[in-house]
Amino acid sequence: MRVDQWGLLSVSDNRGRVLSKISTDVVDDARIVVQVPVANGNSIYSKIGDLFAWGCLVAFVGGGIILLKSR
User: Fold this and answer.
1) What is the extent of the structural domain holding 64?
2) pLDDT of 10-48, one tens digit each?
3) Per the structure, how many domains does the chain have?
4) Which of 10, 30, 56, 60 could crosslink 21 through cysteines, CB 3.0-4.6 Å?
5) In this structure, are 3 and 25 located in the same domain?
């Protein structure tokens, strides 16, 4: 849930398409009830997960160890 005061309240799907929106400047008690479709993720992250983040962590720690040993 997101509280939006004096702005635009919106609901988007997993592709960023706006499904519904309402300006909270016009209505005091703005609410949106929308049925959001659930789709299977077909992105790189859905295929490899946190592998890239773990690789970055290993490279960072490994680089730090190499720098400390070279001193």
Assistant:
1) 43-71
2) 888 878 889 998 887 766 677 888 888 887 777 888 889
3) 2
4) 10
5) yes
